[in-house]
Structures are given as structure tokens and as C-alpha cells.
Design a protein that fits this description.
- By secondary structure, the chain is an all-alpha fold.
- The protein has 21 helices and no strands.
- The two termini are 28 Å apart.
- The longest helix is centred in the C-terminal third of the chain and has 54 residues.
- It has 2 domains: 215 residues, no CATH class; 232 residues, no CATH class.
- It comes from Dyadobacter koreensis.
């Protein structure tokens, strides 16, 4: 088994473990032991640091991925590129820290009325952003040394597990809330140290001046230009993901922000299958685009779109059919349950988005890749303006409408662009069949009678609904031969276990 396959399998395992830890943390541990305000505050610190790191690293991870091959040479210690990759984000981190401090009065003015608690800890964003910068850069360096498993484990398992343990220690009274936050930030600093130690253990921690025969002035200008352009896309993505909850906190308070964040997290579970399918498809898709084989691109896009709709659609159905039970079981569910229709708005548009297939990937790996950044930045601006308008009027529901509408427009624009440039559309008659099956199964859930909710009865009814939905869904998908891949998988399982 090759190193790429081994590393990919290990990284995939780490990702799934991380998803499990994340669900337990978000749906129980955090909601159980943190007040709604404390939960929102901790998430805002984390998410804002991700947002700021997206531009403060000055595009360094993208530069590493694009240009590392020019320097790769273990005998020459990669011609000193590591020193450059560490210095450039240091400059970005210093610039960010100065800018953040300059804008501190504006930050105080924005949050003082509705979220004064945030102002007590907002400065933690500076070290947290710095740590995120170097985690991203060191991950990129490891990635270009064909090592992704350990960095992925640190991001997906260690950091999430550390967060869970620190919240539990706070819940048990062993830590104050302030101490917990400081230790959470410190855990990210430790992640940087662990990554450096891992790189040293690999024998790739090369501290030497860059080779100016390779790292010429013209190449530096080219690298910075590329990093700056890709940086716009990274900032756009993070703005689309995180700006809404920050604006809710500023305009409506931390409680509203906490409700919105939990609802967004629940809706976001729908996208988990898409990420796995997209990762599998990207290498084949990129190869077809290089060859100009658009027929194969069309086939791959339609198959991916269909399988993403099947996987994401059934996850949506499982969530929405039991949404009242989910909020009943979540600690402080009566408060978080106010975001029920935030889940609906965001989940529906996510189902549509995943049903449109691999449009982003098609654009990114084609000669039109610059349009991907353009669309992301334009969508981020649209989302910001809509949130600015709707949050003061409708609170977190307004944020949900703004985000849902922005995502819908973003999806339609990408799909239209791919159809225009490549003649590729994601939909087939099977798309309609899947939609009808999902609607039919949702209607069936109404046949389950009402009942008095207790913890036990809610869990049993969730299990019953889920079993009914999954079994009927599989039977119908296989019976009508909607997905070749699913039918082949079922046939393979039958052959293996019934022979």
C-alpha cells in the first residue's frame, strides 16, 4: 500500500473520529455545561480566529501547495523554503495584531450594548488567530512532505478532544470559565508545538536561509501575487461561514448568537457526506478537465450530484423528521429550540447546494479558476449586506434568511457558469425521483402518532423514525435502480454475507 493511500486512510479515520467528537461536544457537552452566552462566546472566539487567520496568513498555505515542488530536495533541506513559510505569516500575524488593536474602540462600540461579555475576552482572538495561522502553515508543509495523517489527527481529534475535556473540567467546577478559555487557547499553541515536534521527528525541520538562486525576487513577487489572490477566496469562504453569527451577537446579543450557532451546526451535518464524495471525485475530475473530456466531467458531476443528494437528502430527512425530539434532548433545548426554523431554512438550501454537484471543483480545476474566487467574494459581500439589513429586523431568523438566500444565489450562479462554459448540468430525471422519494418518506413520518415526550420516549421515537426512513429509502433507491454505485454496493454486500 502506497504512502498516499496509507496517509489518506489514516486521515479519513481521524476525520470521522473528529466528526463524532464534534457532534458530542456541540449537541451535549457544550450545551450541558455552558450557558447559552458562554457557548456563543467560546464559538465566536474560535470562529473569528478562523476568519482572521484566513487573511492574516497572507496566503502562505496556498503558496506552499503551489510552489513547494520548486524547492523539494531533502539533501538541500528544501532550499530553505521552511524559513520563508514561517516568516511570511509572522509578518501577517504582526500586521493583524496591530490592525486589531487599532480597531479595538470600534469593536467595543459594536458589542458593548448587546454583548458586553464578549468584550472581556475578545483580545484572545489575537493569540488564537496566530496559532491558527501556524497550524495551517505547518499542515501545508507536512502535506507537501506527503504527511497528512498526524496533522489531520491534531486538527480533527486532539483540538476537539481538548475542548471537550476542558469544558467538562469547567462543568465539574475544577476550572473557572476564564481559566477554561485561556487553556483552550493554550491547547492551540500546544498544537503548533506538536506539529513542529512531528516535523523534527520526520527529519524535515530545516532551519536555513532560503536559497536565493531559487527564491528570486521575481519568484517572490509571483508567490505573493498568487497568495494574495487565493487569500481572497479563503476570506470569502470564511466570511460566508462565520460573519452572520458575529453580526447577530453584535446586534441581538450572545443568546441569539448561541441559538443561531447551534441551529447552523445541526443544518451543517447535512454536508458531511458531500465532503467525502467530493474528495474521492476531485482527482478524477481534475484529470478529465486537463484532457478536455467534458463528457466524462458531465457524467462524474451528475453521478456525484445524485449520490450527494441521496446521502444529504436522507440526513436532512432524519434531522427534520425528529427536530422537535432533537431539541427536547439537547440541554437547554427550550432556548436552542427557538432556532428550529433556522435549521429548516439553512438545511433546505444546503440540500439544494449539494444536489448541484461539483460545480466549485469544476471551476477551480479548470482554466476559469479565477471565477471561483470572484463568485466567493461576491457572495460574501451579498451575505454581509443582507445580514446588515435583516438581522436588526428579524434577529437570528433574519440571519438565516440572509445566509440561505446567499447560498442559493451562489449555487445557482456556479451551476449556470458551468453549464455556460462546459455544457454540464448536474440534474437528470433521477434527481426528480430522489426528491419524490424524500417527499414520500417525509409524509410517512406523519403517520406516527403523537406521544408524551420523555427522554426515553423521545429517543425511542427518533430511533423508530430513523429505522423506518433508512430502510424504506434504501429499498426504494435500490428497487428503482436510481444509483449504480448504491446498487453495486448492495449487491456486493449481498454476495459477501449471503453466499
Amino acid at each position: 500500500m502506497g504512502i498516499v493511500v496509507r496517509q489518506s486512510l489514516k486521515a479519513g479515520l481521524g476525520s470521522y473520529i473528529g466528526v463524532g467528537i464534534g457532534i458530542v461536544n456541540q449537541m451535549y457537552v457544550s450545551t450541558k455545561f455552558l450557558s447559552v452566552e458562554q457557548y456563543a462566546l467560546s464559538r465566536l472566539l474560535f470562529e473569528n480566529s478562523l476568519l482572521f487567520a484566513a487573511f492574516a496568513h497572507l496566503g502562505t498555505p496556498f503558496i506552499a501547495d503551489k510552489f513547494f515542488s520548486l524547492f523539494r530536495n531533502d539533501e538541500e533541506e528544501h532550499h530553505g523554503i521552511l524559513a520563508f513559510l514561517l516568516l511570511l505569516p509572522f509578518i501577517g500575524a504582526v500586521m493583524f495584531g496591530i490592525i486589531y488593536l487599532v480597531f479595538t474602540p470600534a469593536i467595543h462600540a459594536y458589542f458593548a450594548e448587546e454583548s458586553p461579555m464578549f468584550l472581556k475576552y475578545h483580545f484572545l482572538v489575537i493569540p488564537l488567530t496566530t496559532f491558527w495561522i501556524y497550524i495551517s502553515v505547518l499542515e501545508a508543509y507536512c502535506r507537501n512532505n506527503s504527511r497528512i495523517a498526524v496533522p489531520n489527527f491534531i486538527r480533527e481529534v486532539y483540538l476537539k478532544l481538548a475542548n471537550v475535556l476542558l469544558i467538562l473540567m469547567f462543568g465539574l467546577g475544577w476550572l473557572s470559565f476564564e481559566a477554561m478559555l485561556y487553556l483552550v487557547v493554550a491547547s492551540y499553541g500546544l498544537a503548533v508545538v506538536i506539529l513542529l515536534g512531528y516535523i523534527k521527528q520526520l527529519g524535515r525541520l530545516y532551519f536555513r536561509f532560503p536559497d536565493t538562486k531559487i527564491l528570486t525576487r521575481s519568484l517572490i513577487i509571483q508567490m505573493l501575487g498568487y497568495g494574495g489572490f487565493t487569500l481572497l477566496g479563503g476570506v470569502g469562504v470564511n466570511l460566508m461561514l462565520f460573519i452572520d453569527r458575529t453580526m447577530v451577537a453584535g446586534k441581538k446579543g450572545l443568546v441569539s448568537a448561541g441559538i443561531f450557532i447551534i441551529a447552523s451546526y445541526i443544518a451543517g451535518i447535512i454536508e458531511i457526506p458531500k465532503k467525502a464524495i467530493a474528495q474521492i471525485s476531485i482527482p478524477l475530475l481534475a484529470a478529465s478537465l486537463v484532457k478536455g473530456d467534458y463528457d466524462h466531467v458531465r457524467t462524474m458531476n451528475q453521478k456525484s450530484a445524485l449520490n450527494q443528494l441521496i446521502a444529504g437528502g436522507v440526513v436532512f430527512l432524519l434531522i427534520w423528521a425528529s427536530i422537535d425530539d432533537i431539541f427536547f434532548l439537547i440541554p437547554k433545548g427550550s432556548t436552542y429550540g427557538e432556532g428550529k426554523y433556522v435549521v429548516l431554512f439553512l438545511a433546505l438550501v444546503k440540500v439544494f447546494d449539494i444536489a448541484t454537484g461539483l460545480n466549485t471543483e469544476i471551476i477551480m480545476y479548470s482554466k476559469f479558476f479565477r471565477f471561483a474566487t470572484l463568485f466567493i467574494v461576491a457572495s460574501a459581500i451579498l451575505g454581509f449586506l443582507l445580514n446588515l439589513w435583516l438581522i436588526p429586523i428579524h434577529g437570528f431568523v433574519g440571519a438565516a434568511i440572509a445566509t440561505a438566500f446567499t447560498t442559493l444565489v451562489y449555487s445557482i450562479v456556479r451551476m449556470t457558469f458551468v453549464w455556460w462554459k462546459f455544457g454540464v448540468l448536474p440534474f437528470t430525471n433521477k434527481t426528480l425521483q430522489v426528491a419524490l422519494i424524500l417527499a414520500f418518506l417525509y409524509a410517512i413520518t406523519f403517520l406516527i402518532p403523537e406521544y408524551t415526550r420523555t427522554i426515553v420516549s423521545a429517543m425511542l421515537m427518533m430511533a423508530l423514525r430513523s429505522i423506518i426512513i433508512i430502510l424504506l429509502f434504501i429499498i426504494l433507491i435500490v428497487r428503482f435502480k436510481i444509483s449504480e454505485e448504491i446498487n453495486d454496493l448492495v449487491s456486493g454486500l449481498q454476495t459477501r454475507f449471503l453466499k
